[in-house]
Amino acid sequence: MSVNSTRTAVDDIQNVVVIAVIPDVEPDGTKFLFVKEKDGALRFPGGKVKLQEPLREALQRELLEETGMNTINVKAMALIEYSVLYDTKNDEIIKSILLYFFLASSRDTFPPNEDERFTWLDEPLVASQQKRIPYDNHLIIMEMGSIKIKHRYQVPSGFLDSPKDESTIATRSFCWIDPMLQKSPCWKYLFRFLQFYR
User: Fold this and answer.
1) pTM over 0.85
2) Using CA atoms, how far apart are residues 123 and 86, in angstroms rounded to an integer?
3) Most exposed residue of 46, 142, 163, 191, measured as fewest CB within 10 angstroms of its CB?
4) Closest Cα partner for 100 from 11, 13, 30, 35?
C-alpha cells in the first residue's frame, strides 16, 4: 500500500485524534462508556487534537466537553491508523488519521447524566449495536485479545463507518503503545507518540 510522502508534521498533527476507553467493572461484567451523537451514533469519547496541543490536554478537554468528567487518570493504550482508499487499482490513500486510544478513569465521582449525553454498554450490547458503533471501537472491546499488530483490517459492512461506496475501502492498522498489551509494540508510532504526549 502506498503512503503519501508529501504529508508534513503539521498535517500529521491535524490528523491526530485522541479517544478514551472508560470501563466500569461490576460484579456482573464490565461496561464501557459511549457518547451518544444526535444522529444516534455511539462512540468512545474523544476528538481531534488542536495544533501544538499535548495529547493529554486534548483528551482532558474532550472528556470535559462530552461527559463532564473533570479529573482523570490516563494510560496510553493503543494506536490505530485509519485509512480510506478511493483508487483501489493504485492503492492511493485519500485520508489517513492516527487514533490514539487511552485507558481512562476518574478520580472523582462520575458526573450525572441528566441530559443522557452518554451511556454504558456491555459486550452483548456492543455486539448488538454495531451499526451505530465505529469498527475500531468494536474491535477494542470485542477482539482485543486476537488483534495482530501491524495487520491491516478491512472495515466490513454493517458498522457505522463502513464504506457506503463499493469503490471505497476503509482499513484499520493496529499498534500497541502499552508493551504490556503486546510483546512487540510498534516503535515507529511509539516514538511519534512520545513526541506529542507531554
Assistant:
1) no
2) 33
3) 191
4) 13
